[in-house]
C-alpha cells in the first residue's frame, strides 16, 4: 500500500469483488444493506448467516490471498470507521462518533510552530464531524462538549471556538462571485515563521493576493543532500562579494552567469587597464567612454590591491528582479563599498525607511503575536496586579483597571465595563488614526521632497566639479583667449548658415499656410455635403494650379566649418576654417515664388490683440526676471484665437490650444478647433472639432443645419493622443473625444453633466473629467471606452469631511505622486485628493494676499512637484509647494490668465482670455510662453 496508485488498485479490485459477490451469493445470504469504504464493509444480514457470507467472500479470490474477517454487533453497538451504530429498543439505529479504547484525545498542540489556520482547521474538522455523523441533538451537544474539553487540554483558548463558529455561520458566496474573486487573486508561497507570516498574509489579503505557506526548515533539508555542493566558481544566478586587500571596502555585484566567468572579466579588465597615464580630465573621459567597473575604478583611484582569492558568492536567486533587490540589500549591509550606486534596484527614501523598520517591527510582532493575535484572553492582565484580569475602565483617569486597582488608587472614581468603554471610544480612536495617517502622508511628501532636493544637490555638485576640472585644465594649457576667438568664429559660421535656413523657410512657409488653409476649407465643405463645396472647386483649382508648375524647393546649401588643431608648441588650439562647397544652380521656376516677407518687428500690445504677432520680452516683470514669448490675438485666422480655454504640451514640444468660438460670433457651419504651435509660438497646423455624434433636428431633418461643437479643454494621454472635452452650442450635449495629433477622431463617449476640464492618469490611462451640475459637482474617472470607474469630491460621499464640497471645478491635474488637484473657482481654493478619492488637504481662500486666490482657473505642476495656479480674479500666476505653502508670484502683469500647462523642458505656457465683459485689454486672446520664471 505504499505506492501512490495503491488506493486506486484496491478500489478497482473491490468493485470487481462486489460484482462477483452479489452475482453468486446464495439467496439466504444476500445483505439488505451494503456499505463499503475501500476494504471496510458494513452489512445488514439475516441473523446466523454471518459465517456463511464471510466464507463466500473469501472463496471469490482465485489466489486465496485475500481473506476477510468480520465483527458482529455487541450489546446493540457496532463500529464502522469513525461511526458507532447504536440499536434502539424499537429497532431503529442512531449514530455516534466512535473512538477506540486506545484513543488519547491528543491533537495538534496550540503552541506548536504551525500556522493558525491549521489549528483552526482541527477544530473545524471535529465540529463538522459532530454535525454530519451524530444524529440526535443531545448526543451532538455532548460530542461538542467533549471536543472543547479535549482541545482545551491541548492549549486551545475559548476565542478559537468562537471564531470557527462565526466563520461557519457566514453565508457561502455564490459560485459566480467566488469565480470572480478567484480570477482577481494571485498566489504567493512564503515560508512559515510564527508571527511574521500572519502579518504578511494580512497585508497580501488587502491586495487580493492569496498566500500559501511552506515549512521554513525540514529534516529532509537538514539531513538529505543527494548532490555534492557546488563550488562558488560554478554557481550561477548569484550575488557575490570582492574584498580589497589595501582597505576595508568590498564590491557587491550580481550575475546570471557563472561566478567564475564574471570574476575573470573583472580580473581581465583590471589587468588591461593598469598603467594608463591619464590627466584628470582624460581619466574622467576615459571612465565614461570605456565604461569601467567600480572595481577597476577603485584600483586606479586609490592604488589598491584586490583580494581576488577572497571573492565569494554570498547569495543566490534565479529571479532577476529579486536578485537586484538582494544586491541592493547587500550593498546597504556591507558599508563601506566600492560600488558607485545602490545596485540594479534602487529603493526610494520612504521605501528604504519602511524596509529598515520592517524587520524590527515584524520581529517584535513575532514575540507578541502568540499573546495578542492568538491568546488575547490570557493577555488582558493588569500590570500592577498580574493575577487579576482587566475588566473595568476608569472614566476619570482614562485607563483600564482591574478590581484591585479600583479599591487601591481609583476608589470612588466613576468606571464602566471595558467592552462598553471600547465601543464608546472607538470613534475617538478612529478619528485619531485617520488624523495620524493624514499627518504621515504629509510627512511622507516632505521626505520625498527632501529626496528630490538631495538628488538635485548631488547633480549640481557633480556638474560643479566637472566645471572646476575643465576650467583648471584650460588655465594650465593657457588657451582661454584663443578658445574664445575660435568659438566666436564658429558662432559666426553657424549664424550665416542658420540665416540661410531661416530665410528659405520664411519664403516657403506663407505659401504652405495659404495652401493648407484652402484645403482645410474645401475639406470642411466637402464633409458637409451638397453644393457649397462646389464653390470651393474653382478657387482651389486655381490655387493648386498656381503651385503645380513650380518646382519643389531645392535643399539649402550651407558651408559648415570644421576644427583643425595645430601641432605647434605655441598654446594655440587651431583655426576655424570654412569648408567650401560648390554652389547649386537655382532653377528658373523658383523666381515665380513670391519674395519672403519682411521680418516681423516686436509688435505693440495693441498689435498682439488685434492681429497675429509675436513678442519676445526679457525685462523685469513684477519682482522676477522672465523671458516671455506672446503670440495670438483675437480672430479666426491661423494663429489667432477667439477663446483659448485649454492648453497642453506634448512630449515633442508641440503646444495644443483648444480654441472655442462663441455662438454669437459663429456661422451655422463653424466649429471649434485645436491649433498647434512650436515652443517659439510658430503656427504649425490646426484641425476642427465637429460634433462627435450625429445630430437630427427636433422636428425635421435639415441638411443645411449643422450643430456646433466647442472644445473646453485638451490634454495629452500616455500614448501621445489628445483628449478633448466640450459641448454642442445649441443643445449643450457634453462629450469627450479622443483625437490623434493630426486631428483624426479615434473614439468618443457622452457625458451626463456640464464638463469643464480634462486630465489623464498616464500610468493607468484613466481619463479625469470635472463635471458641474447644481450642487453635484465632482471629478469623474473613466476608462478610455467611457466606463465610469469612480467619483472624486462628491459631497454625498465625503462623510468625514462634510465641509469639502466642490462647487465649480474648472481645472484638474495630477502631480508626480498621482494625487488629484482640483481648482474650484467658486470656492477660491485648490483641493488635493489621493488617487483613490480620499481627501488630503486644501489651500487658498478668497482674497488677494499671498497664498490667497480669487476665482482660480488653470492648474498644473512642475518637475519639482510645485503647484502653479492661474489666479484669474487677481490677474496673476502663483506658485505653491506640494503641501500648499505659498512660494512666489510667477507673474503679476498678465490680466485674466485662464489655462496653464508645463512643457517637458520646464517652460510654462499660459493662455489669456476674458470670457465675459469687455475684452479690449492688452494681450486678450493670446498665449504666452515663459522660458524661465
What does this structure look like?
This protein folds into 6 domains: 6-97, no CATH class; 174-218 and 347-371, no CATH class; 230-277 and 290-346, GIY-YIG endonuclease, CATH 3.40.1440; 380-476, Double Stranded RNA Binding Domain (2-Layer Sandwich); 493-580, no CATH class; 609-932, 6 Propeller (Neuraminidase), CATH 2.120.10.30. It contains 19 helices and 40 strands. α3 (116-133) runs antiparallel to α4 and α17 (480-528) packs antiparallel against α18. Helices cover 34% and strands 24% of the residues. By secondary structure, it is of the alpha+beta class. The chain has a 5-stranded antiparallel β-sheet with strand order 16-17-40-39-38, with no helix packed on it. It is elongated, with a radius of gyration of 41 Å. The N and C termini lie far apart (84 Å).
Output the strand order for the largest sheet: 16-17-40-39-38
Assigned CATH architecture of the largest domain: 6 Propeller
What is the oligomer described by this structure?
A: single chain
Mean pLDDT: 78
Low-confidence stretches: 353-378, 570-624, 663-669, 697-705
Separate helix tally: 19
In percent terms, what proportion of residues is strand?
A: 15-25%
Computed structural class = alpha+beta
Could you name the CATH topology of the largest domain?
Answer: Neuraminidase
Largest sheet: 5 strands, antiparallel
CATH class of the largest domain: Mainly Beta
Got a strand count? 40
**How far from one another are the termini?**
84 Å
Give helix % range: 25-40%
Rg from alpha-carbon coordinates: 41 Å
Number of individual domains: 6
Keywords: Coiled coil, Metal-binding, Repeat, Zinc, Zinc-finger
Pfam family, one: DUF5128
GO molecular function, one term: zinc ion binding
Protein name: E3 ubiquitin-protein ligase TRIM71-like
Amino acid at each position: 500500500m505504499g505506492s501512490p496508485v495503491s488506493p486506486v488498485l484496491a478500489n478497482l479490485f473491490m468493485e470487481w469483488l462486489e460484482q462477483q459477490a452479489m452475482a453468486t451469493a446464495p439467496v439466504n445470504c444476500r445483505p439488505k444493506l451494503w456499505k463499503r469504504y475501500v476494504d471496510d464493509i458494513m452489512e445488514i444480514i439475516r441473523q446466523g448467516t454471518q459465517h456463511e457470507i464471510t466464507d463466500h467472500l473469501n472463496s471469490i479470490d482465485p489466489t486465496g490471498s485475500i481473506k476477510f474477517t468480520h465483527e458482529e454487533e455487541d450489546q446493540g453497538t457496532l463500529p464502522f470507521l469513525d461511526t458507532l451504530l447504536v440499536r434502539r429498543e424499537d429497532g431503529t439505529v442512531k449514530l455516534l462518533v466512535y473512538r477506540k479504547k486506545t484513543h488519547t484525545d491528543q491533537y495538534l498542540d496550540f503552541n506548536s510552530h504551525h500556522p493558525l489556520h491549521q489549528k483552526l482547521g482541527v477544530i473545524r474538522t471535529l465540529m463538522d464531524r459532530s454535525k454530519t455523523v451524530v444524529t440526535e441533538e443531545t448526543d451532538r451537544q455532548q460530542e461538542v462538549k467533549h471536543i472543547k474539553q479535549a482541545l482545551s487540554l491541548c492549549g486551545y483558548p475559548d476565542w478559537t471556538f468562537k471564531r470557527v463558529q462565526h466563520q461557519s455561520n457566514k453565508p457561502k458566496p455564490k459560485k459566480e462571485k467566488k469565480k470572480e474573486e478567484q480570477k482577481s487573486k494571485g498566489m504567493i508561497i512564503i515560508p512559515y515563521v510564527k508571527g511574521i507570516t500572519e502579518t504578511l498574509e494580512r497585508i497580501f489579503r488587502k491586495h487580493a493576493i492569496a498566500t500559501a505557506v511552506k515549512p521554513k526548515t525540514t529534516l529532509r533539508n537538514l539531513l538529505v543532500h543527494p548532490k555534492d555542493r557546488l563550488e562558488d566558481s560554478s554557481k550561477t544566478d548569484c550575488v557575490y562579494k570582492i574584498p580589497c586587500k589595501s582597505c576595508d571596502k568590498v564590491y557587491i555585484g550580481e550575475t546570471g552567469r557563472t561566478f567564475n566567468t564574471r570574476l575573470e572579466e573583472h580580473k581581465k579588465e583590471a589587468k588591461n587597464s593598469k598603467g594608463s597615464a591619464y590627466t584628470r580630465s582624460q581619466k574622467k573621459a576615459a571612465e565614461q567612454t570605456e565604461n569601467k567597473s567600480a572595481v577597476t575604478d577603485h584600483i586606479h583611484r586609490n592604488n589598491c590591491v584586490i583580494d581576488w582569492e577572497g571573492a565569494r558568492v554570498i547569495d543566490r536567486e534565479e529571479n532577476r528582479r529579486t536578485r537586484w533587490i538582494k544586491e541592493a540589500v547587500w550593498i546597504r549591509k556591507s558599508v563601506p563599498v566600492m560600488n558607485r550606486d545602490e545596485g540594479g534596484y534602487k529603493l526610494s527614501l520612504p521605501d528604504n525607511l519602511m524596509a529598515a523598520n520592517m524587520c524590527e517591527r515584524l520581529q517584535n510582532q513575532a514575540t507578541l503575536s502568540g499573546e495578542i493575535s492568538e491568546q488575547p484572553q490570557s493577555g488582558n492582565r493588569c500590570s500592577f496586579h498580574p493575577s487579576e484580569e482587566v475588566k473595568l475602565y476608569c472614566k476619570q483617569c482614562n485607563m483600564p483597571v482591574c478590581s484591585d486597582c479600583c479599591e487601591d488608587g481609583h476608589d470612588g472614581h466613576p468606571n464602566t465595563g471595558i467592552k462598553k468603554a471600547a465601543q464608546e471610544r472607538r470613534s475617538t480612536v478612529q478619528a485619531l488614526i485617520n488624523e495620524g495617517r493624514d499627518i504621515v502622508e504629509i510627512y511622507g511628501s516632505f521626505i520625498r521632497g527632501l529626496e528630490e532636493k538631495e538628488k538635485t544637490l548631488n547633480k549640481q555638485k557633480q556638474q560643479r566639479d566637472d566645471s572646476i576640472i575643465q576650467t583648471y585644465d584650460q588655465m594650465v594649457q593657457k588657451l582661454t583667449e584663443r578658445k574664445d576667438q575660435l568659438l566666436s568664429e564658429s558662432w559666426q559660421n553657424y549664424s550665416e548658415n542658420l540665416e540661410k535656413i531661416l530665410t528659405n523657410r520664411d519664403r516657403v512657409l506663407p505659401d504652405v499656410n495659404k495652401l493648407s488653409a484652402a484645403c482645410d476649407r474645401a475639406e470642411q465643405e466637402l464633409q458637409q455635403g451638397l453644393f457649397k463645396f462646389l464653390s470651393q472647386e474653382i478657387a482651389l483649382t486655381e490655387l493648386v494650379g498656381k503651385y503645380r508648375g513650380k518646382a519643389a524647393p531645392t535643399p539649402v546649401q550651407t558651408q559648415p566649418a570644421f576644427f583643425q588643431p595645430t601641432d605647434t608648441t605655441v598654446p594655440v588650439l587651431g583655426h576655424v576654417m570654412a569648408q567650401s562647397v560648390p554652389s547649386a544652380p537655382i532653377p528658373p521656376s523658383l523666381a515665380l515664388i513670391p519674395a519672403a516677407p519682411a521680418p516681423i518687428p516686436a509688435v505693440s500690445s495693441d498689435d498682439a490683440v488685434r492681429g497675429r504677432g509675436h513678442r519676445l520680452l526679457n525685462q523685469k516683470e513684477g519682482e522676477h526676471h522672465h523671458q516671455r514669448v506672446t503670440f495670438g490675438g483675437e480672430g479666426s485666422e491661423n494663429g489667432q484665437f477667439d477663446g483659448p480655454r485649454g492648453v497642453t504640451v506634448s512630449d515633442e514640444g508641440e503646444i495644443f490650444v483648444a480654441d472655442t468660438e462663441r455662438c454669437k460670433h459663429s456661422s451655422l457651419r463653424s466649429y471649434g478647433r485645436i491649433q498647434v504651435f512650436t515652443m517659439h509660438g510658430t503656427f504649425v497646423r490646426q484641425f476642427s472639432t465637429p460634433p462627435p455624434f450625429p445630430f437630427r433636428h427636433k422636428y425635421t431633418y435639415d441638411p443645411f443645419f449643422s450643430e456646433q461643437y466647442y472644445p473646453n479643454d485638451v490634454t495629452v494621454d500616455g500614448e501621445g493622443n489628445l483628449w478633448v472635452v466640450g459641448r454642442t452650442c445649441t443643445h449643450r450635449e457634453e462629450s469627450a473625444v479622443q483625437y490623434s495629433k493630426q486631428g483624426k477622431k479615434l473614439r468618443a463617449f457622452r457625458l451626463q453633466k456640464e464638463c469643464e476640464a480634462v486630465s489623464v492618469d498616464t500610468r493607468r490611462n484613466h481619463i479625469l473629467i470635472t463635471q458641474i451640475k447644481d450642487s453635484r459637482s465632482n471629478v469623474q474617472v473613466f476608462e478610455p471606452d467611457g466606463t465610469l470607474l469612480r467619483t472624486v469630491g462628491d459631497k454625498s460621499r465625503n462623510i468625514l469631511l462634510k465641509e469639502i464640497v466642490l462647487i465649480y471645478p474648472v481645472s484638474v491635474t495630477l502631480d508626480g505622486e498621482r494625487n488629484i488637484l482640483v481648482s474650484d473657482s467658486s470656492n477660491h481654493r485648490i483641493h488635493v485628493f489621493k488617487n483613490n478619492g480620499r481627501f488630503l488637504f486644501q489651500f487658498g481662500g478668497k482674497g488677494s494676499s499671498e497664498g490667497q486666490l480669487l476665482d482660480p482657473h488653470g492648474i498644473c505642476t512642475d518637475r519639482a512637484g510645485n503647484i502653479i495656479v492661474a489666479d484669474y480674479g487677481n490677474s496673476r500666476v502663483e506658485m505653491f509647494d506640494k503641501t500648499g505653502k505659498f512660494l512666489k508670484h510667477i507673474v503679476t502683469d498678465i490680466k485674466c490668465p485662464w489655462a496653464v500647462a508645463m512643457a517637458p523642458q520646464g517652460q510654462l505656457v499660459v493662455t489669456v482670455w476674458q470670457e465675459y465683459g469687455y475684452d479690449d485689454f492688452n494681450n486678450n486672446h493670446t498665449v504666452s510662453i515663459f522660458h524661465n520664471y
